Amino acid sequence: MSLSGRNCTANSSAYSELKWAFDNKRKAVSKLMESGRKTVWMMGDDVPEEVIMAAGMLPVRLCGYYGPRPNADKYLEISFGAQWRGLFEAIMNDEYAGMMDYLVLSNSSDIIQKLYYYLLELKRMEPERRLPEIAYVDYALLTKDYRSQERNWSVTKDFIAKVEGWCGRKITNEELTKAIKVCNEYKKALRAFSALRYGKDSRVTGSEALTAIAGSFYLEKERATELLKQLTKEAESWPKAEGVGVFYTGSMQETTEVYELMEAAGLNVISEDKLFGDRYADCDADPELPPARAIASRYHLRFPSSERALIKERAICVPERIKEVGAEGMVIFMNHNDESYIWDFPKQRDALKKMGVPALMIEGQYYPLKDKEELSRRFATFARTVKGAQK
Amino acid sequence: MAEEKKYETRSVKRLNTPKLTGAYQKKWFMGLRERIEAGEPFGFVGANTPMELLQAMDIPFVVNQWWTAICAAKQMGPRFYDLLEQAGYRNDICSYCAAAYACSLDPKPEEGPWGGLPSPTLLICAESCSSGVKIEELMTEAFGAEAFRIQHYHQDVIKDNWWELSCDNWEELVGKKRIDFYENELRLLISFLEQKTGRRLDLNRLIETLNNVNEQEGYYRKTRDLIAKTVPAPVTVTDTVNAVMQAQWHRGTKWGVEMAKSLYEEVKELVDKGVAAVPNEKIRLLWIGRGLWFNLAFYQHFEEKYGAAFVWTMYLGIAADGYIRNNVEENPIRSLASRFSFLEDILHVPPFNSQWFVKEAKNNQIDGVVFLVPENCMNNGDFSYNIIKSLEDAGFPVCVLRADPADAKKWSQENMVAAVEELIENRIIPKKS
Ligand code: SF4
Ligand code: SF4
Fold this sequence. Notes:
By secondary structure, chain A is α/β, with parallel strands linked by helices. Chain A is built from 16 helices and 8 strands. Chain B is α/β, with parallel strands linked by helices. The site of one iron/sulfur cluster has 10 residues of chain B, from helix 5 and helix 6.
């Protein structure tokens, strides 16, 4: 296998289309914009895109900028890790200039809340930048009690009202229900595709999965669903993906670089609790419920993220998930100053130990990666450890 | 092991009030153990939580960040942070919030400051950063305590000059939605406290507590204003930080009011007598950031050589501007909600923070600003670019120190002195002459 990919993927037209969108996000979004819809860009895992779709607007997932980041270096403190810097840069540089009508951030990490305040202030300070109109979805995500649920209902209703203000009309329940169904269908297709990643007979490499899943974000949902279904059919007969199957968590990977390094070192990411990956599709909105409540529940009940969950909860959910997907090891990869996971680690490691699943924790990473050889060495050693643990 | 100190870390004390507050604090803390052994509840709370409720219910409590300050002042930071590392965490992150958790890992807890931190039975924390929430969870477990986590709602009403609204027009400042939300949280918290402790919140007592707070903070306001307009300044930050922090901890008590009054009277007396903290005062400095608790003498380092006096920190500044809420009788819980739903924004949300620092720099006749940016706080984000730009645009040069305010082991006295000297020599003195 090489960086240029496997023949099976190269021969798949579905994969090629997804990969094109993944590699050419700007062009892909431009193409979507030809329909004349206004764009609503989303930063953070928990912006209810169903509402945006119901309004006839175009939800666009913001992906970080992977190139020089002078704006991030100028405006952000060093406490903002590499992923956050990339997202901020993507808003501030020319990559998507003129393409952002609205920007919505969600309470998925405390750093995003900070970015929200920074961007609001930048809009005031530097009006010549013409930053888009900015909104914030303040879901309570840490606990799943009634208090959070009630708040999330009200936040969803407020967000619907906000989007109605943008599109200048009422959003009907029928429109919301339709959007919910389209999204559920899409997530179902993603889950079926991801199922081929799991277990010892994984058919898909982590980098292929990331490419297909994240690529699908930049296509019409209906088209993405079709492509994913087609891809799933094809991938069933793909050759087995090499490498020790691991579960990935920590800082989100928006490019395939780290996954590819892992693959070259004998590891394969078969699942992750990250939005650019498995977590996106893990929970449906119930089409039987009144739509605003159904949408709130979808974001409320998802798999607990490493940033907005209690240690206790993740010490149970993560090992369960690892068992479910048949991962043989866990890799936690953290960017410098995106390291709150350190506080989860000892408990999780102990829980995994009992299951015979080794864990590797990597800290202090930057973009661009500072020492790839060292990383490769650590991944390779870990692959051997996991194999050793199985004997 | 911590390195041998090569620099003086004890500050020279000029006032009597800090001695009184220090002695009281120690005595109070010693008495605490007895109270807990007698079966009283004991709270451990974040600095950004409404401890007035505990005060009004007579539940003793320790404030997390202020406990860190005590550990740091006693030069115990390094010992505790190494304990974190031994337990599988790291010794170089979150020092400001993790000291108490580290104490819980100590095999000899009685060797901690003042005989060590007793185990809290209640934890009150605000949902803040992801690490903070996790550390609090670990503490709760380690202490076998019960926790209440207060949810926050973001600020979407951005008003200029917040300090003009905060005392009387706080509804307008904070926004209805946000206060509604926090008020509801407080009501849940009160029920939690009543249930867990068997004590009840008497609203009359709460009103009295809140009125005491207003009175106490009113004295801080007078003290801050007096220092601001008096050149040379009667006192510097080393004289005031401990006195303020210790009495703020007992905010809402008669003793707190007395100590704030006593601080004001002492400062006023110095002004009346024409006594200056730095008689050759030529330069006035403002300190932004957490206090350098293990090395308060740092602030005095520049007095003799340059006549440079640190006259401002946030501790007195926030006390003066951040807490007062008038008309508490109308709805005491709501007035408390307005205080705490906004308190963090003063320091962390632009432009509330930048506008306030500029106003304080102007009022305090400041020549330059030293800005401590903690290197090991992943949640550090006050839009410091904007703070620095706002201050410099207003004519106040800023020097940034990157350091850990709680862990003495990582402090480089030489580099930090050099950075401040650079500010004074190259950016302040040339401008003044
Ligand atoms: S997996 Fe097998 S068939 Fe596919 S590219 Fe690699 S070597 Fe070729
Ligand atoms: S990231 Fe900063 S605020 Fe959060 S727990 Fe750590 S030191 Fe405290």
